[in-house]
Amino acid sequence: MSASQNSIEIARWAAEAAAEKLAQNPVAFDVSERLAITDIFLIVSAGNERQVGAIVDGIEESLLTHGLKPTRREGRRDSRWLLLDYLDVVIHIQHNEERTLYSLERLWKDCPQIPLD
Given this model, what pLDDT does residue 9 score? Predict the structure, then answer.
């Protein structure tokens, strides 16, 4: 089973909102075959904590216009890594250094990558 079209659409909306706030290197993985709890991991990064916060705000505002609220939010506003859980899509917003250190792309490289037009 692969990610639903609805999940892909949510990930693309979130990636677009992140890009508007100058997020770097957005990548989405279809993790539905490996995880029962979600369909897609979206990973984006930023150069500083303030920008991480701006990206989080931009994503939340954009998805709210589509009637979506995160079920869970992990990390603090001044954090270097925040997670937004929209059930079918989990979004990781990381400081560049955390992204390099934890290398989530390496962990999920066997999963299909979703194009983010």
Answer: 98
